[in-house]
Amino acid sequence: MAEEKSLFEKELENLGITLTERQKEQFDRYYEMLTEWNRVMNLTGITDYDEVNLKHFTDSLTIVRIKNVNEISTLIDVGTGAGFPGIPIKIVFPHIKVVLLDSLNKRIRFLNAVAEELNLENVETLHGRAEDFARKKEYRERFDLCVSRAVANLSTLSEYCLPFVNKGGSFVSYKGSISDEELHDSKRAVEILGGKIVKCDKFMLGDTDNRRTLLEIEKVKNTPGKYPRKAGVPSKEPIM
């Protein structure tokens, strides 16, 4: 008799994702490490097993709704925090080279421990600010895909993220709900930074009332050299 599928597996199957036994083990160990480390540092306010699976792991993987991730070779996760969405994407799509960027070193230590424990290969962690790393030639316009669940307006996020994306690649922003005003206000910034909004997918996360939005911005031309501006400016003075 077949083992009954978990809620997590069912949610992922709705996205067209079927986990191997190894991947199930990796997600379970990731959950254990998240809750263990969360006792001594603030990684997440969500610790219930099913909630973490839905609101962190499944949410991270909803990118498949708008993007064929099998075609991606390189990914950077800006403001990754406890590793979302970068690590769940890496677990399910192990062929991708993933870079995880965060400004807090304690989170980087956690991410390094997770990558080692889960035997994730081709994962690099960066401690610092997007504004600084996006100016380094080894990271600027080097990625097929940039993702971010960071909380900021789309103009600011675009200045953090689009400089990392190569021409023809994409930046995908994970948001809750997004207003027509924010979308309208961000269009000029996106264009200046070399991007074009090509998809806006609004949906409910699982069988909940959690509104989610995935925005895909395609990189259609190179980002001008003056961007991103120095650390702190994009958040204080978004391009309008």
Describe it for me?
Specifically methylates the N7 position of a guanine in 16S rRNA. GO terms for molecular function: methyltransferase activity. Helix 1 (7-14) runs parallel beside helix 3 (49-61), helix 3 (49-61) packs across helix 4 (86-92) and helix 7 (154-161) runs parallel beside helix 8 (180-192). The radius of gyration is 17 Å and the shape is globular. The protein is α/β, with parallel strands linked by helices and 240 residues long. The termini are far apart. The chain has nine helices and seven strands. It has a seven-stranded mixed beta sheet, sandwiched between helices. The protein has one domain: Rossmann fold (3-Layer(aba) Sandwich), CATH 3.40.50.150. Helix 5 (105-117) links the parallel strand 2 (97-102) and strand 3. It has helices spanning 7-14, 21-38, 49-61, 86-92, 105-117, 130-133, 154-161, 180-192, 233-236, and strands spanning 74-78, 97-102, 123-127, 143-148, 165-175, 195-204, 211-219. Helices cover 37% and strands 22% of the residues.
SSE arrangement:
Layout: H1 7-14, H2 21-38, H3 49-61, E1 74-78, H4 86-92, E2 97-102, H5 105-117, E3 123-127, H6 130-133, E4 143-148, H7 154-161, E5 165-175, H8 180-192, E6 195-204, E7 211-219, H9 233-236
Parallel strand pairs: 1-2, 1-4, 2-3, 4-5
Antiparallel strand pairs: 5-7, 6-7
Helix pairs in contact: 1-3, 3-4, 7-8
What is the count of β-strands? 7
Q: State the order of secondary-structure elements, H for helix, E for strand.
A: HHHEHEHEHEHEHEEH
Percent helix, as a range, is 25-40%
Q: Please summarize the sheet with the most strands.
A: 7 strands, mixed
CATH topology: Rossmann fold
The CATH architecture classification is 3-Layer(aba) Sandwich
For the record, the CATH class is Alpha Beta
Strand content: 15-25%
Overall mean pLDDT? 95
| Radius of gyration (Å) | 17 Å
Q: Looking at this structure, what is the CATH superfamily?
A: Vaccinia Virus protein VP39
What structural class do helix, strand and pairing data support? alpha/beta
What is the distance, rounded to the nearest whole angstrom, between the alpha carbons of the first and last residues? 60 Å
User: Structurally, how many domains make up the residues?
Assistant: 1
Uncertain segments of ≥5 residues (pLDDT<50)?
A: none
Number of helical segments with 4 or more residues: 9
Shape: globular
Major sheet: order of its strands? 3-2-1-4-5-7-6
